[in-house]
TrEMBL record:
Superkingdom, taxonomy of origin: Bacteria
Protein name: Metallo-beta-lactamase domain-containing protein
A single GO molecular function term of this UniProt record: metal ion binding
Record-annotated Metallo-beta-lactamase domain positions: 12-191
UniProt-listed CDD domains: metallo-hydrolase-like_MBL-fold
Record keywords, A-Z: Hydrolase, Metal-binding, Zinc
Keyword set includes Chloroplast: no
Organism: Bacillus canaveralius
CC cofactor: Zn(2+)
InterPro entries in the cross-refs: MBL_Glyoxalase_II, Metallo-B-lactamas, RibonucZ/Hydroxyglut_hydro
Length: 210
């Protein structure tokens, strides 16, 4: 299993295309600039199977409908943020001069599970709230990486000053669900460069001393 990181939009939100040798793929957090995603998918001759959202802030959902309609695939989000897709107040676009971003309702919900299967993909879902109430992290155990959304970054953590954010809850989410993964696990964050669990355990100033 492999992945492609594509920063999108003015906030350079990372979208990830997760794909197998059989050319099936999942699209995580298509935030904007759908054309860039289409080009990458076409270049690799991939076959999208679903869109997974780590959370529903505007910079992670801007291209959801374009992707869903292009490939006729379902969209998954945590139930706590089901209403955020169509509400610019909840998804934050109304407050960040990003226009009023709306997407159609998700087709399915993702919640904590020991294992989920979508098409050719097996993964675990961790509920990692704190940045937002319905934030999740998606762990691909066999491939040793986790898509952490805006929970954990390289040397930092997600902001918690937005509606529904909670700093203590975020720190607990990270320690309970992410730092328990093997240290070699790659962390695919919602913004910025990738990192590893071990690197964040050793050097992340927001986590040391908890």
């Amino acid at each position: 299993m492999k992945w492609i990181q594509i920063p999108l939009g003015p906030l350079q939100t990372n979208c990830y295309i997760i794909y197998t040798d059989r050319k099936s793929c999942l699209i995580i957090d298509p935030g904007e600039e759908a054309g860039k995603l289409f080009s990458a998918i076409e270049a690799e001759e991939l076959k999208p199977q679903a869109v997974l959202l780590t959370h529903a802030h505007f910079d992670h959902i801007g291209a959801v409908d374009a992707v869903r309609e292009m490939f006729d695939i379902p969209v998954y989000v945590h139930e706590k943020e089901a209403n955020w897709l169509g509400d610019p107040t909840l998804n934050g676009s109304e407050f960040f001069m990003a226009g009023k971003i709306r997407a159609k309702a998700a087709d399915h919900f993702l919640a904590a599970a020991n294992e989920r299967t979508i098409g050719d993909f097996n993964f675990q879902v961790f509920e990692t709230p704190g940045h937002s109430p319905g934030s999740i992290s998606i762990y691909f155990k066999e491939a040793d990486f986790v898509a952490a959304g805006d929970a954990l970054f390289n040397g930092s953590i997600g902001r918690t000053d937005l509606p529904g954010g909670n700093h203590d809850q975020l720190i607990k989410s990270i320690h309970d669900h992410l730092l328990t993964l093997p240290e070699e696990t790659a962390v695919l964050p919602g913004h910025g460069p990738t990192t590893t669990i071990g690197a964040e355990m050793d050097g992340n100033p927001f986590l040391n001393g908890f």
